[in-house]
Amino acid sequence: EVQLVESGGGLVKPGGSLRLSCGGSGFIFSRYSFNWVRQAPGKGLEWVSSISASGTYIYYADAVRGRFTVSKDDANNAVYLQMNSLRAEDTAVYFCARDLYSSASSKHFDYWGQGVLVTVSS
Amino acid sequence: QSVLTQPPSSSGAPGQRVTISCSGSSSNIGSNTVNWYQQFPGTAPKVLMFNDHQRPSGVPDRFSGSKSGISASLAISGLQSEDEADYYCAAWDDSLNGWVFGGGTKLTVL
Questions:
Q1: How far apart are CA B22 and CA A5, in angstroms?
Q2: In this predicted structure, what is the pLDDT of residue A106?
Q3: Is A76 helix (H, G, I), strand (E, B) or coil?
Q4: pLDDT range class, residue A81, cuts 50, 70, 90
Q5: Residue A109: per-residue pLDDT
Q6: Which of B2, B32, B96 sits opposite A44 (nearest CB)?
Q7: Which 3 state secondary structure label does DSSP give B32?
Q8: Mutate to test the interface with A, among B99, B105, B107 (most CBs of A within 10 A)
């Protein structure tokens, strides 16, 4: 059974840092690319970052570029999101989601973790 | 504002058909496929439709997707109470080099 489990969330002061982890099981982790998607309280989904299967291709939303860093550790079946210089507007539930290619040019998020809450507040 | 535009709410009576629209631009819907996600309160989203019109296994055929130009839509026929949820469209944006989502549509079954 495919599972994604996020951890590392919590309360942090503005300007602080946090590292989120997403552990995967039930599939060959190294073959997949992953994404982080967040959802502020009562708001919609917002894509944060993507990392390719090899880790070669990395993309960030403008709102987090330069502050967040995504990485992938196939040996430990984990994806990480290092979040620095956190702001109040980063407060959200952060989801990890796996990419599945349905064709050479089409993909979607086929599995999601349960999400982890990050609260940025003084 | 979200890059993709969805109506914030939609409603229908049990058994009716509802359609949720998603409008984008040439850099996202116009050049890439659209996916739809369903989310119940307090839970993670789940893929409902991918590659514009394909349903993952387990999704009833009451759900259908379509796309034309820079717009896409999700149709739900034979509306049931368990369809009450939030629905999001998403597509890759070639200009932004990232995924863009619609603002979400809250579906209420009357």
A1: 30
A2: 87
A3: helix
A4: very high
A5: 97
A6: B2
A7: coil
A8: B99
Q: Quick one: tokens of B32?
A: 């890439």
The DSSP symbol for A90 reads G
CA-to-CA separations, B61 to B46, B54, B75, B77, in angstroms, rounded: 16, 10, 10, 9
In this complex, the residue of B32, B88, B99 whose CB is nearest that of residue A44 is: B88
Q: What are the Cα distances from residue B75, in Å, to A9, A64, B15?
A: 36, 34, 13
| B86 pLDDT higher than 90 | yes
- Residues A44-77: tens digit of each pLDDT: 999 999 999 999 999 999 999 999 999 999 999 9
SS3 label, residue A29: helix
- Test A44 with B103 for CB contact under 8 angstroms: yes
Confidence tier at B52 by pLDDT (50, 70, 90)? very high
Residue in A70, A52, A53 with CA at minimum distance from that of residue A61: A70
- Whether pLDDT at B48 is above 90: yes
The closest CB to that of A108, out of B47, B86, B98, belongs to: B47
Assess B54–A contact: CB distance below 8 Å, yes or no. Answer: yes
Q: Is B80 on the interface with A (CB under 8 A)?
A: no
